[in-house]
């Protein structure tokens, strides 16, 4: 099956690279990746914080457990993208270090201030939610509200607490209200780098398609077919609609961004399954793709739902939190990790089967080694970045809530985008047709032909030597 595919596929640049050129390919990948990391480290912070304490808001001490607290966000722009309001309750007293928890109600009114300084109430009725306060030495910060996009240049939030109680001997010393939003400088960096990656991806896509234009589709290898699909998905991953976030006050561009990212990442997962299985199987019918599409499709549904669930509900209620609907959230989370584990086991199984069957065959071992090596590099870097970014939070209930607020600097953003873009660029270069592919439109397994040629050469050599001996002996007889 594998030899049959080799008989009819376009010769890739991968087969013609020397060891030195292979080293240069990987060095170029790492240099480009680390350049983006360095640029990100030198870039601006992603999240900007502003703190307003209740004492500065001139709230009397006897009103600290009830409010009202009126928080003004100040002037914002579309480059600030989103807005979070959190509160940190500070305690004092003889038992301030004790551990306790309390459930209380939160009431929030949000006013949008237009450019003419007129206030508009976002909702006629206040948003009422229940929050769980947990204190151990100090109290955990609470998310009061989150605005996914900014419809007004400024906001004023009026917050009231109901039923907030503390153990005897403990009272509130002060409350810090923390406003978080994206840095305008980072938004500009994000726009420029998304645009640069978008242009580079478009150029690579055109060059790759141009290099394969001379060959019919049936002659393409499985890697070349998948690259022709992954490169357009990478264009969507870089999000050509991203500037609309700053031109249109709507949730639609953000929703498209979630769809594009989930589609590209799941397409990449599907490529790894099909590549490791398809290298050793030339006939790929419905039964070949169905289980793979089913596994990755469930991952796409779970990942998109997890990323858009809270975003959709916050459009209806800015004080919404996933913990309110924890049953459905945990169900999706368990489904995501279960399907992810099944995918990982299936991928490892296909990897071992491919190596056990093809590692001794010429050219196939090169394809397997390159595909596996680059995949492991990308997975390792991604896991390291995720671990450094979230730590054990990836397994906790607050994972989704902290996705947007746990960035420290531009390096984490540029690392993910640079890694995936340069990974696809490297594969596009290696899997593109070689220079002599035009003359060898069919790249065949030369072992049989070489054996035939060697045998013919040997026969000719034996025949010529015998003929020379016969001629020499006849000349001697004549003399």
From TrEMBL:
Membrane spanning stretches: 21-43, 191-209, 229-248, 260-279, 286-306, 326-349, 370-391, 411-431
Pfam families found in the cross-reference section: TMEM181_GOLD, WLS-like_TM
InterPro entries: TMEM181, TMEM181_GOLD, WLS-like_TM
Nucleus recorded as keyword: no
First and last residue of the signal peptide: none
A GO term, aspect molecular function: toxic substance binding
All residue ranges annotated as the Wntless-like transmembrane domain in the record: 184-435
Compartment(s): Membrane
Keyword Translocase part of the UniProt annotation: no
Keyword terms: Membrane, Transmembrane, Transmembrane helix
Topology in the lipid bilayer: Multi-pass membrane protein
GO CC, alphabetical: membrane
Residues in TMEM181 GOLD domain copies: 67-182
UniProt protein name: Transmembrane protein 181
